[in-house]
User: Which sequence fits this backbone?
């Protein structure tokens, strides 16, 4: 007999032999015992998690000669023929290679025929998401009202591609990725069955590479067994899977702790020269730092460790880093991993990330110094708040208020600083005709942008314009900052406006709160309202839309603004 791969030889033949998926097994077994099975099931989940195997076990149990039962006997003629794949009433259909409507119609025509020698005809449709739209439509009616002797089991790795009408007619079971412990125990059973000694750390390496898939794990195990000789060793597993030894990660992390940049880069260069993929190395480093975090926690978490074994050197290494430092390492590598997916220079990205990690400073002395500085600032702020509270309770004399320097708003609350000097220059040369020219082309120019770009400018409004620039007021500070920092968006929008009105303008962004303050100061400093009364016809002058008179500087108003702030004082003239 020809050699068969491990994942075929050791495919589970009963619910008892299945690894993981407890929620699926218990539900199906209870339904089988109570004789309450339905006509259609949908098994969805990652590859290699047991969807097709569960479907075959379910078909065997449903048609077993000892039914109703929770387990197939695997001894009767029906069970044996289903195991061998020769039973005429168990039809396996691969939708990936038979996706046309003609193949589906051929199945539907035979659905109404009674089973040859079983209780139920079971149709197992694998990779059902590959069916065409016409094939789904042909299947829909039969799936809704099938004959009493028919059961459909649909299996897919991408359930989001199935029509909602199909999903709603099935009982859905979501298969989860198998735990490392489940995969490890299954591989031990296989190696004990073939009587091959092994190192447990080698199985952990294979488990980590399988990423929760039993079929991938058994395929890798099959490859490692063929490569190794008398004993399955860690070195064999590392070589076949392309993983890195925990000893190398130990040396690399130790060099990071000692801030030995040369050694860090040399180790990385050696790993890449040995054929290790930088993207895979980044993922393994994240896992290694995660294991160090687990070693810092209390309690026995040895079963959760993936790359590290519980040894004194690793425990000591974990204690040399604070938890915050390890978290920052993981964050840096995770961000780098995302950027590497869109670049061909993955090695450079990893080198940069390791340099950043190596130069990260988090010594206990520095931490104490930072904490002390923060404590001093907190004490100062508390003292200041207490003084202000007492002043508000007792009242502040007007003379003290005059001695206080005027408040200045240099930045918005989110840290954005508008170009106030440039905006004031625009206000000096602004005209009413200029702003009306901008507003006339505003709506049409917004429609020319993408929806995401137009959304940022939806709450913005042009408020002043000169011959070469205009001021754009934003209702929300965060939108102002996002637009101001996006130079490509500003250039594109200016070009869109220029196509409408024939003039290329510079766009100056300012939040609404900053605009109101700057506008009031400009009116006061330039005597804009006084000029309007002396205006000579057809003479251009500085213009601000809807300018209002400056409020009288009454001593009572000054006192009220000193106590409660200008934002909370409203002057009503009677």
Assistant:
């Amino acid at each position: 007999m020809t050699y068969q791969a491990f994942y075929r030889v050791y495919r589970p033949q009963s619910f008892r032999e299945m690894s993981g998926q407890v929620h699926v097994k218990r539900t199906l077994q209870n339904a089988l015992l109570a004789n309450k099975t339905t006509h259609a099931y949908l098994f969805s989940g990652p590859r290699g998690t047991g969807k097709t195997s569960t479907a075959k076990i379910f078909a065997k149990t449903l048609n077993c000669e000892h039914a109703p039962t929770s387990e197939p006997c695997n001894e009767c003629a029906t069970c044996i023929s289903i195991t061998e794949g020769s039973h005429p009433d168990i039809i396996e259909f691969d939708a990936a290679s038979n996706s046309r409507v003609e193949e589906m119609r051929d199945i539907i025509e035979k659905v109404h025929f009674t089973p040859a020698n079983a209780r139920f005809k079971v149709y197992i449709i694998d990779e059902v998401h590959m069916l065409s739209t016409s094939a789904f439509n042909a299947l829909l009616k039969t799936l809704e009202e099938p004959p009493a002797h028919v059961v459909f089991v649909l299996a897919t790795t991408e359930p989001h591609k199935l029509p909602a009408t199909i999903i709603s007619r099935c009982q859905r079971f979501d298969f989860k990725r198998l735990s490392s412990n489940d995969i490890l125990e299954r591989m031990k059973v296989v190696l004990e069955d073939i009587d091959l000694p092994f190192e447990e750390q080698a199985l952990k390496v294979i488990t980590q590479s399988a990423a929760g898939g039993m079929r991938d794990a058994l395929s890798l195990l099959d490859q490692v067994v063929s490569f190794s000789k008398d004993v399955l060793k860690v070195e064999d597993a590392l070589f076949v899977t392309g993983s890195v030894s925990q000893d190398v990660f130990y040396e690399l992390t130790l060099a990071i702790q000692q801030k030995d940049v040369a050694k860090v880069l040399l180790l990385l260069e050696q790993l890449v020269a040995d054929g290790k993929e930088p993207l895979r190395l980044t993922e393994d480093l994240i896992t290694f730092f995660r294991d160090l975090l687990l070693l810092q926690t209390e309690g026995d978490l040895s079963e959760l460790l993936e790359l590290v074994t519980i040894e004194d050197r690793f425990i000591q290494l974990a204690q040399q880093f604070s938890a915050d430092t390890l978290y920052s390492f993981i964050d840096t590598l995770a961000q780098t991993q995302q950027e590497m997916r869109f670049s061909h220079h993955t090695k450079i990205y990893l080198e940069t990330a390791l340099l950043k990690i190596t130069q990260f400073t988090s010594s206990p002395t520095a931490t104490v110094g930072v904490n002390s500085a923060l404590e001093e600032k907190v004490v100062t702020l508390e003292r200041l708040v207490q003084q202000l509270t007492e002043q508000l309770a007792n009242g502040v004399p007007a003379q003290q208020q005059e001695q206080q320097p005027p408040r200045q708003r240099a930045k918005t609350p989110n840290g954005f600083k508008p170009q106030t000097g440039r905006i004031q220059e625009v206000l000096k040369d602004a005209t009413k005709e200029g702003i009306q020219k901008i507003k006339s082309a505003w709506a049409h120019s917004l429609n020319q942008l993408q929806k995401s770009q137009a959304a940022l400018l939806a709450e913005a409004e042009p408020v002043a314009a000169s011959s070469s620039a205009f001021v754009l007021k934003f209702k929300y500070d965060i939108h102002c900052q996002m637009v101001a920092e996006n130079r490509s968006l500003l250039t594109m929008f200016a070009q869109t406006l220029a196509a409408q009105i024939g003039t290329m303008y510079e766009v100056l962004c300012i939040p609404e709160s900053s605009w109101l303050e700057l506008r009031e100061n400009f009116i006061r400093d330039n005597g804009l309202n006084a000029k309007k009364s002396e205006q000579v016809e057809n003479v251009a002058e500085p213009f601000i839309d809807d300018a209002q008179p400056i409020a009288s500087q009454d001593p009572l108003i000054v006192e009220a603004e000193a106590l409660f702030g200008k934002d909370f004082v409203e002057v009503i003239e009677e």
Notes: The longest strand covers residues 150-156. Residues 246-358 form a domain with the Zinc Finger, Delta Prime; domain 3 fold (CATH 1.20.272.10).
